[in-house]
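Reminder to self: keep the SMILES exactly as supplied, no canonicalising. Ligand is S-adenosylmethionine.
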Amino acid sequence: MDGPFTTPPRPQGWLVRLALSPRFHRLAERLPLVRRFARAEGEALFDLVQGFVRSQVLMALVNLGLLARLARGPETTEDLALLTRVPLNRMEILLKAATALKLVRKRGTLWHLTPRGAAFTVVPGLAEMVSHHRALYADLADPVGFFRGPETTQLAGFWPYVFGAGIGDPEAHRFSRLMAESQTLVARDTLAQVDFSGQSHLLDVGGGHGAFLSAVAARHPGLRLTLFDLGQVVDSAPPLPAQITKVAGSFRDDSLPLGADSLSLIRVLYDHSDATVAGLLARAFEALPKGGLLVISEPMSGGDQPDPATDIYFAIYTMAMQTGRTRSVAEISTLLQAAGFVQITSPAPARPYVTRVLTARKI
Ligand SMILES: C[S@@+](CC[C@H](N)C(=O)[O-])C[C@H]1O[C@@H](n2cnc3c(N)ncnc32)[C@H](O)[C@@H]1O
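C-alpha cells returned for the bound complex:
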C-alpha cells in the first residue's frame, strides 16, 4: 500500500476485531466449534486466492477444445495430449485440475465429462464467452493500474460501438454472434417476467441479430416486431421470422421508429455512460405512445446489497469497457424518472447473473 491514510483508524465490530487477532486464531484451533468456523473461512479465503487460476484452467480447457472433444466420448490422456499438442505430463495436471473443478472424471484409463462438464458444453454461448475473457483478463493483469483507470483497455476494443465508433462487418458479426448465443437464457428469463400479450407492436432497440425478437415471435405469433440496431449489425443478421421488420440506425443520432406500443432494451444500457443512457431513454419516451410499455432487461447491481455475481463480474466487466456501468434498480429508476417514465417495477430475478427485468410506462 503506498500513501498515508489521512484519518485515524475507526472502531471495528467485535467479530472483525477477533478475526484480526493472531492470538484468537491460535486459540480457535483448539476449540472444536470455532475451529470448524475458522476452517470454513480459511477455505473461502483460499478459494478467493485461487479464483484466477480456476478461471485460467477453464479457459485452457475451452481453448484446447477438451470439453467439446469429451462431449463426443471418453478419451485417454495420451490421445488428448496428442490432439492438443500439450506434453503428456502437463495434460495429466490439467485434467486433474479439471477433475477438481468437477468438470471431468477418470474411469480406468479414460477421461469422461461429468454432468457439470456436459452441461457446460450445451449452454448456448458459454464457451465463446469464456474465450473472449482473454481481453478482460489482459486488462486485469495489472489490477491496481486497472482500478486507478487505464488510458485504454482491450475489452473496449472488443466492443467498438460503445464509443460511438463506426464498426466493420467482421466486428459486428463477432460480437453480435456472441450476444445472440447467450441470448437464449436472457430471453427465457425476460419472457417469464414480462407479458407482451396485451401489446400489439414491440420495438427492440439495440436488438443485435434479433435473437430476443425471435424468442418473442415464437411466444406471440400475432405481435408486430421491429428490430433496431446499427446498419452493419442488422445487415449481418440471419434470416428472421416474417413478423420481424429490420430498421437500421443509431440511437445516438437518429430518432427511434414510431408506431410500437412497447419498447425493449435488452443488455443495452449497461454498455453506456449515464449521458448516453439519458439520451436513449428520452428517445424511447418520445417514440412510445401514452400507455406505452418499456422493458429493460440486463444484469443489475444489488445496490446497497452487492450481489455476488453482478457486483463482481458485470460491474468490473462494464468498467473494463470504459463507458459502461452495471447499475442498480434504483439507479436505472432515477434515469427512467428523469426521462418521464412512471410505474416502475422490477420483480426479483430468477438468475441475477443472467438478467434482471425492469418495466416502466409512459402515461
Ligand atoms: C450488448 S449488445 C445486446 C444485443 C441484444 N439486445 C442482446 O441482448 O443479445 C448491445 C447492442 O446494442 C447495439 N448498439 C450499440 N450502440 C448502438 C447505437 N448507437 N444504436 C443502435 N444500436 C446500438 C449493438 O450493436 C449491440 O447489438
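Points to follow up:
The mean pLDDT is 92.
The CA atoms of residues 1 and 329 lie 34 Å apart.
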